[in-house]
Specification:
156 residues; mainly alpha; Helix Hairpins
Amino acid sequence: MKKFSFELQGVLEIKQKLEGQAKINFGIARAKLTAEEEKRDAIIARRESYRSMLADNLGGTLNIKEISRCEEAIDIIEEQLSQQELMVRRAEKQLELMRSRLNTVIMERKTIEKLREKKFTDYMREYNDEERKQIDELVSFRHAMADIEAAAEAES
């Protein structure tokens, strides 16, 4: 019987490569999101620092120049935070897109692998049937030969 060959093996290999690339893209998107979240957290920490300085200035001796500087800094940081939140949302959307693509490629690969497994199971069933048939023929042949030899000995 001929060796097992899967007609879609090339497609399966391509799907495996696409899956690997999709995993890399997902990892890059995840790293980008993490970096954007870290930038956002740094901006929030800076804002809290300026708020703390403002509270200290308002609670102690009034230094109008320092209070004004802190308020302006907080306004600027609020704008930066708004922009950074936008960047985080974009990175989240990109991550979800990469996750979706990865899931699609994995599903396609698994579908082809299941088809391959089914074809291999069918091949093994046919192989075993063929093997049983050959064994039955061999047993029948030996039995017939034994009968012929027994008849020949009985005549002599």
